[in-house]
Specification:
The structure is a single chain. The protein is an alpha+beta fold. The protein has 3 helices and 3 strands, in the order E-H-E-H-E-H. It has helices at 23-33, 49-53, 69-81; strands at 12-20, 38-42, 55-65. It has a 3-stranded antiparallel beta sheet. 20% of the residues are buried.
């Protein structure tokens, strides 16, 4: 079963694709902690591999509102490049 490549929420943009069952929720939590609402979904619809093995070869996509996409991309880039510093 495959899903349409339409965003899960109108006016949303994919800001990341991950292939590990831990990375998706971790990055989504990072966005949420910065006040950026996000949605995560399997890249190609139903993907049983995360349930069986904890990872996915098909990938998961993280979507945010289009008006917050650049902010989300900057945050994710800072986090993945090691320059992210959480405000105290």
């Amino acid at each position: 079963m495959f899903v349409s490549k339409q965003p899960p929420v109108p006016e949303s943009v994919c800001v990341a694709t991950v292939y590990d069952g831990v990375q998706g929720p971790m990055l989504r939590g990072l966005l949420e902690s910065a006040g950026i609402p996000s949605v995560i979904r399997p890249k190609y619809g139903m993907d049983p591999l995360p349930i069986l093995a904890g990872s996915t070869i098909l990938g998961q996509e993280i979507y945010v509102d289009a008006d917050r996409a650049q902010e989300a991309l900057d945050l994710l880039h800072a986090f993945t490049s090691g320059t992210y510093q959480e405000e105290a």
